């Protein structure tokens, strides 16, 4: 009896280990992640509006049809990026994702407190190479440090009514993601 119980406990422990390892390693081995799917439609370091999702076809998972969405695939190899996003009437959010899909920063129009969300995106090394300038304070310049050299910036603007969606798309079309000069 004890022998069977030991076999049963051993099998459950081994099954738990295999399950946990699979759940943790599967996202790292996926070949069709969001960055790869967007490579065909979104050039590096530029904002591209995404088509509205339909029940049968959505470029990214869990897209809400009440939001106009744009994406910027970034690569910081050539230097820091400057991001400028106008704020819509209803709600605007900007989310930053590492190449692996992990979100590392987000800001919305209420947190920005301005009519334009404006920030600089750079790696930790690029931030360390910045000259110390006493006249530029944290309130003047929002700097976001990316944990990876490549990743995604997702910009979402809420259209509270279907008739206001064109206005949200026009505001989204003026968003900029470009290398700093």
Describe the overall structure.
- This protein is α+β, with helices and mostly antiparallel strands and 181 residues long.
- It has two domains: 1-30; 34-179, Immunoglobulin-like (Sandwich), CATH 2.60.40.
- It has helices spanning 2-29, 34-38, 109-112, 124-128, 165-173; strands at residues 47-49, 67-75, 81-86, 92-98, 103-108, 116-123, 143-146, 150-158, 176-179.
- The longest helix has 28 residues, at 2-29.
- The mean pLDDT is 86.
What attributes characterize this protein structure?
28% helix, four-stranded mixed β-sheet, five-stranded antiparallel β-sheet, 2 domains, alpha+beta, Immunoglobulin-like, 5 helices, 31% strand, 181 residues
Structural class, by secondary structure, is: alpha+beta
What fraction of the residues are assigned to beta strands by DSSP? 25-35%
Shape: globular
The termini sit apart by 75 Å
How many helices?
5
Spans where pLDDT lies below 50 across 5 or more residues: none
Q: Supply Rg.
A: 21 Å
Strand order of the main beta sheet, please?
1-2-8-4-5
Strands, total number:
9
Number of domains: 2
What is the mean predicted local confidence, pLDDT? 86
Instruction: Give the class-level CATH name of the largest domain.
Output: Mainly Beta
Helix content range of the residues, please?
Answer: 25-40%
Profile the largest sheet: 5 strands, antiparallel
In the CATH hierarchy, the architecture of the largest domain is Sandwich
CATH topology of the largest domain: Immunoglobulin-like
Order of helices and strands: HHEEEEEHEHEEHE
